[in-house]
Amino acid sequence: MTIDLIPESVKKFWNEWIIQSFLILSFSLQMFLVIFAPFRKKTSNKWISFLIWSGYLLAEWAATFAIGLIFRSQGDNDSAFADAGSLMAFWSSFLLLHLGGPDTITAFALADNVLWVRHLLGLVVHLSAAVYVFLCALPKDKLMVPTILMLIAGVIKYLERVRALFLASLDKLQESDEPRQHRTLRSQIALSTKRVPLEEEKLIWTSYNYFKVFQGLIVDLYLAWSKRRQSRKFFRSTTAEYALRVILTELNFMYEVLYTKVVVVRSKLGYLLRAISFSIVICALALFVRVEKHRFHHVDVLVTYILLFGAAALEVTSLLMLIFSEWTLVSILKRIEHRNMIKERKSDSVLDHYFSRLDHYFSRILSCVLSLKKPTWSKHGIGPDDVKYEFGTRVVFRRWSESISGCNLISYSMSQRPARKIRKSCWGCSSLFTGKILCFLVTISI
C-alpha cells in the first residue's frame, strides 16, 4: 500500500491554477518593489532590507518560473490549459515586462551590475520561449496583435534593465571621463548662489554638482587637489545642518545611479521608449477589452485584466515618482542655466520666454514638494532629565537612512553596540559640537 504524501486537491490545484497563481505572484512582487524598494535607502533596518532583498530575488524567479510553466504546457493536449493557447502566448509576452523589473531597483549590490551580460543572455532565452509559445498559438490566436505589442513592450523594459546594469557597472564608470570634464566647483557654487533663488533648489543643485565631481571616487579615479580644497572650504564655511543635507542628497543621487534605472530613463531615448511602452500597454488593454472572451475561462480573463490594469497603474506610479524627484529639478535648473548663458549673447524669443516662465513655475512647485524632505529637529526623551534632540526626517520623506556605520573600540570591548545616530543633548551638548563632528566627518569623507 502506497501512501500519497500530496493530497489530490493540491495536485488538482497545481494542474489547473498554478500558472495563474504565479502570474498574480509576479505582479504582486512588482507592485511591492515599486512601492517599497526606495525604502532601502531610507532606513537601515535590517528586516526591511531583507524583505526588499527577498522581493528582488523572488520577482525574477517567479516570472521565469511562470514562463517555464507556460512553455512546458505547450503541446500537451491533456493539459488544463490546452484551450487557452492565445492567453498563454499573451501571458508569456507580458511576463517580459516583469522580468524588465521596476524603475526603483535594478540591482541590490554593486556586484549585480557586473552581471549585465547574464541578463542580456536571459533576455534572449526568455524572448525565445515567449516567441515559441506565440508561434504555437498562432493559427487560432485571437490575441495576435496584443501579444505582439506586449512582446515589443517587454523587450523595451528588459533592455532598459540591461542597459541600466551596464551603465552602473564599475568598469563603465571607470571608463567615463565625465568627472574629469566637469567644470570647476567654484563656477558651480557661484551659479547655485546667484541664479538659483530658493533654498531647496540651491541645495539640490549644489549636491548634484558635488555628486558629479566626486562620483569618480567610487572607482578610484584621481581627484584634483583644487577641487578637494574647494570642497573643504565649502563644507567648513557652511552650517552643520546644511552640510548634512548636502551629503544626504549626494548619497541619494549616488544610490539611484548605481541601483535604479534613473540614468536610462532620464534621457531623450529613455523618454521616447517609456512613452512607447506605456502607449503599448494602453493599446493592448483596449484591444483585449474588444476581444470576444466566451471561449476563455472567467478566471483567466480576470487575471489578464489584473495584469493589464496593474501594469498601467505601475507605469503611472513610476512616472509620478520620476516627475516629483530631484532629477527633474536638476533638469529644469540645467535648462535655466543654458538659457541664461544664451541670454547673455542674444535676446530671448517669444517661445523661449514662454518656456522660461513654464520652467520657473514648475521648479517652484517641485521645490515645495521636495521641501517635505527637509530634516528638522525633534525632541526625544523619557523624562525631563533625559531630553535629546534628533535632526532627521520622517522615513517616508527621507533621502537617506540618516545613519552611519561606526565602530567604537571601547564599546566593542565592553560588548556594547555603538550609537548609529548623532544626537544633541538638551543640556550639555551644543549645536557647535554637533557641527564640528559633522564637519570632521565631511572632511575625512572627502
TrEMBL record:
> Which controlled-vocabulary keywords does the entry list?
Membrane, Transmembrane, Transmembrane helix
Keyword Membrane in annotation: yes
List where the protein spans the membrane: 17-38, 50-71, 116-136, 271-291, 303-333
Task: Give all residue intervals belonging to the DUF4220 domain.
Answer: 53-412
A Pfam family of the record is DUF4220
- UniProt entry tagged with the keyword Kinase: no
Which N-terminal residues, if any, form the signal peptide? Answer: none
Q: Which domain of life is it from?
A: Eukaryota
Put simply, this protein is called DUF4220 domain-containing protein
